[in-house]
Amino acid sequence: MIDLQLTDKTHDEERQGEALIVDAPLVRNGRKLYIESYGCQMNFADSEIVASILLDQGFETTGDYKEADVVFINTCSIRENAEQRVRNRLSQFGAEKRRNPKLIVGVLGCMAERLKSKFLEEEKLVDVVVGPDAYRELPQLLSEVESGHKAINVLLSREETYADISPVRLNGNGITAFISIMRGCDNMCSFCVVPFTRGRERSRDPHSIMAEAQDLFDRGYKEVTLLGQNVDSYKWKGNDADDSTEIEVNFAQLLEKVALISPDLRIRFSTSHPKDITDEVLYTIAKYDNICNYIHLPIQSGSSRVLELMNRTYTREWYINRIDAIRNIIPDCAISSDIIAGFCTETEEEHQETLSIMDYVKYDFAFTFSYSERPGTLAARKFEDDIPEDVKKRRLSEILIKQQETSLYRLQQFVGKTVRILVEGTSKKSDKDFCGRNDQNAMVVFPATEGVSAGQYVYVHIDRCTSATLLGTVVVEEPEIV
Ligand code: 5AD
Ligand code: SF4
User: Fold this and answer.
1) CATH of the domain at 199
2) Which numbered ligand comes closest to the C-alpha of 274?
3) pTM exceeding 0.85
């Protein structure tokens, strides 16, 4: 289940539990792999790398864990409830393992990195534990398990970007795909476990990113999302693809290179950081029609004091300045956010500051969370998690209500207008309807129309909306668009 409203989320717990089915099995050895992914888009992209590595070993994939020889669960540690879900799922796989003792169960990703060998000791049902930078070792680790040992590799790397591994597109629609452009994070936001589970930030070389985007376009894909924990700090230095001249590529330049592949290839990206997003990036978005006018710019809190405790390294005023720059340079740009309610010592007034900045920005969409202390983070070491659960819950619900109002307000601005969308396929709710997104990432649903199919760009007149979806009808003539 992909909730299409949520696909531009870097840490998107709502997408947890998706079974991934490979669309292109290679030479087979009769063994079947089942992968289930939780958490952020990066984890989903990583599962495509894992599948590629095991397909090269002759595996094929299955969407049913009961017929698998190897079950992998690619995990998320971002909040405690994410880890709890994974543990519940592991006990289900455990029941299967009791029925079929030959079944190999592996834990991959952030929880593997965070809990390391504890998994092998605590969870007798796990055979192999592999951190996000060790997937190349999977074939050897599986051999160790087959020879009767438990296997673990959770070494983090300063270089690994899996640049040369061509991801196997999993469960995709054949139209939109993720491209990982960097790994890790150097930011050390005090609440966040990611720098510990995914290691130091490193950028992938632009040549392999371009080659992957070009290959996707050649195979009929029409949209790529460039992924990184902090895409604005993308920086790569090395030799040009054609000669030995040394070049340096920043995120704005990378965006431009990918945009130039074809005007018919849409570009999205996630996640931007308020301290790093430059005017150069904004002007690049404005310059190319195929770079979508949509920026995910998490604020976390509207209070400068709380932002400092969070170690976000910007203030409320700085954030507002970045929003104003976006509005000036890309007037119709959609903006979304991540917001945390009830961070350590947050006062009622500071919570009100979060609500007031939401009024100022009027986000198109926001992912909202209640603060969850993560062991080992700066906040866990330095501050007391002192906001009572009921207060966190109430603040979170006030944030949610405000967001529902502004999401509706934003979508209402499209009603009566005509928008260009990329058709992604039939709608989740009815196969008589199609769905796709506009430039601003709003989901548009419209009755299936003759001559229209997935992968096409079409114009849709917006007749009405809910707080999450635009509803309309296809316009045949190419109109003046918004
Ligand atoms: N508690 C609550 N939310 C968190 N996030 C990250 N760590 C935590 C935490 N410990 C949220 C942030 C981040 C998003 C991916 O998850 O808002 O931007
Ligand atoms: Fe975590 Fe901050 Fe890095 Fe995002 S930028 S992954 S919130 S440390």
Assistant:
1) 3.80.30.20
2) 2
3) yes
